[in-house]
Prior knowledge:
Number of helices of chain A: 16
Number of helices of chain B: 4
Structural class of chain A: mainly alpha
Strand content of chain A: under 5%
Largest sheet of chain A: none
Shape of chain A: elongated
Radius of gyration of chain B: 26 Å
Order of helices and strands of chain B: HHHH
Order of helices and strands of chain A: HHHHHHHHHHHHHHHH
Helix content of chain B: 55-70%
Low-confidence stretches of chain B: 1-9
Oligomer: heterodimer
Number of strands of chain A: 0
Distance between the termini of chain B: 70 Å
Largest sheet of chain B: none
Number of strands of chain B: 0
Shape of chain B: elongated
Mean pLDDT of chain B: 83
Radius of gyration of chain A: 28 Å
Distance between the termini of chain A: 58 Å
Amino acid sequence: xxxxxxxxxxxxxxxxxxxxxxxxxxxxxxxxxxxxxxxxxxxxxxxxxxxxxxxxxxxxxxxxxxxxxxxxxxxxxxxxxxxxxxxxxxxxxxxxxxxxxxxxxxxxxxxxxxxxxxxxxxxxxxxxxxxxxxxxxxxxxxxxxxxxxxxxxxxxxxxxxxxxxxxxxxxxxxxxxxxxxxxxxxxxxxxxxxxxxxxxxxxxxxxxxxxxxxxxxxxxxxxxxxxxxxxxxxxxxxxxxxxxxxxxxxxxxxxxxxxxxxxxxxxxxxxxxxxxxxxxxxxxxxxxxxxxxxxxxxxxxxxxxxxxxxxxxxxxxxxxxxxxxxxxxxxxxxxxxxxxxxxxxxxx
Amino acid sequence: xxxxxxxxxxxxxxxxxxxxxxxxxxxxxxxxxxxxxxxxxxxxxxxxxxxxxxxxxxxxxxxxxxxxxxxxxxxxxxxxxxxxxxxxxxxxxxxxxxxxxxxxxxxxxxxxxxxxxxxxxxxxxxxxxxxx
Lengths: 348, 132
């Protein structure tokens, strides 16, 4: 297309690409230099500026979700304090290390490409890909565990502890005898499994009404230990069943930030029975980590394409723009996770 | 892509170790030191969680995250050695992020809702929302 634009009206003697003799000779020496650039430096700088502009839009893309996070956390600090206990710091920390290491191998890969080390570049890209796949594998473990236990967003939020899968040891009755909780909440649990969309009308017919599922305002998380296991199970099973309204909002105030702060053994499953707004945290969690995960998947595709070209020997000290630009993208993926990890897993 | 049809065999392959024609080379020791610093800071931010400093905890976690982000930008992403305009583009996006965050939480942190009904009735008496 560019040939047609340049070729017809040029006064100088030009070739089919619109170059004069000197330019043509220069391009002959540098086959990687596309014909619309004067010099390799111009081509490289333009590509890099374009990538940085794209990365700026990526930052602003995530900015919307970070704003949602900030507003929700400011308005409902207790939801975030308790909700983070659904997450496992261990997996978050491992994923942080995995991303940092894959960022490092990516930067090493750029160095290899810059210095014409073809084999080093291939090894670095493969290691970076391995890091990306490890990250997604751990995310799969986290997501499937949460979806399995009903720790999801919106009105499907209905946490049910399953045996041996509790993310946190807890001193409360709920974890002291988890089999009772599962048995008591079984009706709602099976109904939820059969109909993941959460048919509230169908489920509400299953469990008998709880004797008392609105604790006194002074009740702290530890007070739940005194509650009988069966009653607790019924409370938990009621999470997704009670109609939304003022009566449902009142128990959310039970867990004051200060109380949750000092109780290190917060049991989010038990708290979910009284804190109906807890699903807000999971919505933010899935939105932020989901968008980030999509970026990791896109990174896997981009790195794979660069790896393919690297194996074909396209990149060396003369031309390595693709490696550099994909590297920049991958570092931004790491950058976002650097903020997501403390904001979601390390709330104090 | 006009030249992509040419056979790759015509390309003069530079020997390993050749300095790059364009861009800046960031050496392996610098990259390694950056990675080690990032790992140490990750450990630090996890360790800082167990120390109760009240609201300071959030600021400490964010401070560590900003240092980590700066390390990634400066060395992994070559911004320290790159053309300044790329840094300007990136910093501009971060400034807009800060602006958006500030505007988003402005209502939450400054609005005094207990002042709402009297003033609202005074200045907008016909709003049904404020009628008791």
